[in-house]
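A common beginner's mistake is to predict each chain separately and then try to dock the pieces by hand. The better habit, illustrated here, is to supply every component at once so that their relative placement is modeled jointly.
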Amino acid sequence: MLQRKSSIDTEPMTLNLDQIENAREEAIVGVSGNVAVECRNLCFSVSTRQGISVPILRDCSFRIPSGQLWMLLGPNGCGKSTLLKILAGVVNPTSGNVFVEKPKNFVFQNPDHQVVMPTVEADVAFGLGKYHDMSQEEVKSRVIKALDAVGMCDYMQRPIQTLSGGQKQRVAIAGALAESCKVLLLDELTTFLDESDQLGVIKAVKDLINAKKGRDVTALWVTHRLEELEYADGAVYMENGRVVRHGDAATISKFIKVKQSSYIEQIGSS
Ligand SMILES: Nc1ncnc2c1ncn2[C@@H]1O[C@H](COP(=O)(O)OP(=O)(O)OP(=O)(O)O)[C@@H](O)[C@H]1O
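With all components supplied together, the output reads:
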């Protein structure tokens, strides 16, 4: 496992090649504090029935600073979900290093796959069941705080099946927050949602990142929607299993837009 970077460098004098590369990366991504997520030379391959190894992720490296909302973007099949599953610990990489600050929590694409209890309150409290010595007061207080963070406090007693898709996503995020999670891994949460629900979920995540500055909750949000980048601090852009660019959201947005327009020009001229 990678070591967390200290915010204060006490021996800055002689840099070896690795340190120079780190400094270059930090200049690119603007990392100034602690790192919440880091991948270094991450590879993942699967084997076909004929025993041929097929690379899915190729040499992926990037860092996400604590307390920020980052997006993971790229064309269909480029490896976003696979990378997120590795960060979540659901899948093991073939090689390379991964660090994700703990506790971490993974929220899935389909809201119906993750809300399991009959009411909102019971659902958010569900994950706390494993802490056997936690008092009822503590459970209640965590549930209220978590629902408050995603703007769902007024829905505590609501039956889950009466919620919209976006409200279910926010309840799922509250469940992760109730467990004091430090890193939220969010897989295309807006895929099944209508426009107003999409906006509601992304704003809820952005608000909680802003509100928790002291506690430094970090979120990595997988998306196809370029317009969602406006809510992000930073982004990782992938193509064909590789991290092509990573850095601040405005730079990545510009990079993708230039790519898209040159692609459209190419189609137009052929
Ligand atoms: N276990 C597996 N066995 C074989 N191929 C796999 C496996 N897991 C992923 N892949 C392939 O790896 C590639 C990346 O898949 P992944 O789901 O990570 O992409 P993605 O960027 O999330 O795609 P999308 O945007 O369409 O959801 C795809 O071509 C997929 O078919």
